[in-house]
Specification:
Blueprint: H1 5-12, H2 17-28, H3 39-52, H4 56-68, H5 73-87, H6 89-104
Helix pairs in contact: 1-2, 3-4, 3-5, 4-6, 5-6
Length: 106
Amino acid sequence: MSKPSNAAQQLIGAFAPKLVELTDRVLFDDIWERKELSPRDRSLITVAALIALNRPDQLRFHLGKALENGVKEQELIEVITHLAFYSGWPNAISAIMIAKELFSKT
């Protein structure tokens, strides 16, 4: 998975350089590269967690990464629909609106 270091660097690099370094070195260079789960599986898990926790800013990024990692749009819509009953209707509606916006651009 390609890491968002350029985006993170531009957004917060000068303000929080250590956070960018940890994001790059630990999260993306270590955790995301572990062989025990495929990038596709990690994307599905991450998207589900971000929906459940109602984290729309990070969800935007990770929906795009999920597509890059081979998850189909219809599968992501199904994840959101499924989570409506486990993480709450408002979380699912917020997530589906973000997905709709993102998918209309692809």
